[in-house]
Amino acid sequence: MISSTPEQRFRVAALYRFADLPGYEALRPELAAFCCERGIRGTLLLAAEGINGTVAGTPEAIDALITHLETIPALKGIEVKYSTASEMPFHRMKVRLKKEIVTMGVPEVDPVNQVGTYVEPADWNTLIADPDTLVVDTRNAYETAIGTFSRAEDPETETFRDFPAWAERNLNRLKGRKVAMFCTGGIRCEKATAYMKLIGVDDVYHLKGGILKYLEEVPPEESLWEGECFVFDERVSVRHGLEEGDATLCRACRHPLTPQERASPLFQEGVSCPHCAETRSEADRARYAERQRQVELAEQRGESFPIGTPSEKHKT
């Protein structure tokens, strides 16, 4: 993994914008070249409904990319959350064409033209502290496992495609109430509010900029956030001030792990953790153990890792 100096930490940009983007296919080669020429890594997703992604690079490179995206008329005003990483958190640069920039699987949803009410991080506590507000975490179960807001309801979804079914099952509870929704960077909860509007839940709100913006702007002593926030890169999690957290990944099942879970007798680096130890066959465990052995040998030789480069916080 590429390391930075204390003076030049990598800048990480989580970005998205719902927009009518009919010519999105033509942007793929241009954006791929732009990023690769500047050493930017990560993933950008393009679809007719807009752009979504997380990328990392030098501060100058990331600033150049955002400036470039803002020159595209449909993407002007793009939502961006910045954080830093001591090591490059991605292995390569990918620009992909998709049907949706966040996959819900409901074609009728139109987050470009109909969404809930944005709530700034500074106003979020007042909204979710109201006992009449139903607070809903629109992330998936493996994300909510290491942190969420107090009083938040967890739909326990495995993928965002499962969210509409949860909403339909709970429609009677949702209608006629204030519903406050949140997610990591704002994109899933924004699309979720569009779906709520579609099914007749009108008094719906979502956290502008998501958990990342909240952790950046709200002081820890005023915060209603509990735990750490899962992020989709090699940092694994962040906490208040968007500092890198203590969570790591199980390299067998990709579930985030707290330090307490890593201390479990069911945890074996690269092989198993409390979330998957009892569901893996002996053949699986043997395969994972051999893979971990290859990772350790590569580390000794100073070479890249086949399943992700563990930083110092991943080592026991």
Automatic annotation (TrEMBL):
Keyword Cytoplasm: no
Domain Rhodanese: 129-223
Catalytic reaction annotation: uridine(34) in tRNA + AH2 + O2 = 5-hydroxyuridine(34) in tRNA + A + H2O
Extent of the signal sequence: none
Leading EC class: oxidoreductase
InterPro entries: Rhodanese-like_dom, Rhodanese-like_dom_sf, TrhO, TRHO_N
Claim: Oxidoreductase is one of the keywords in the record: yes
Any Pfam family: Rhodanese
PANTHER family per UniProt: RHODANESE-LIKE DOMAIN-CONTAINING PROTEIN 7-RELATED, THIOSULFATE SULFURTRANSFERASE/RHODANESE-LIKE DOMAIN-CONTAINING PROTEIN 2
NCBIfam families with a match to the protein in the record: PRK00142.1-4
Family: Belongs to the TrhO family.
The protein's role, per its UniProt record: Catalyzes oxygen-dependent 5-hydroxyuridine (ho5U) modification at position 34 in tRNAs.
Name recorded for this polypeptide: tRNA uridine(34) hydroxylase
Source organism: Nitratireductor rhodophyticola
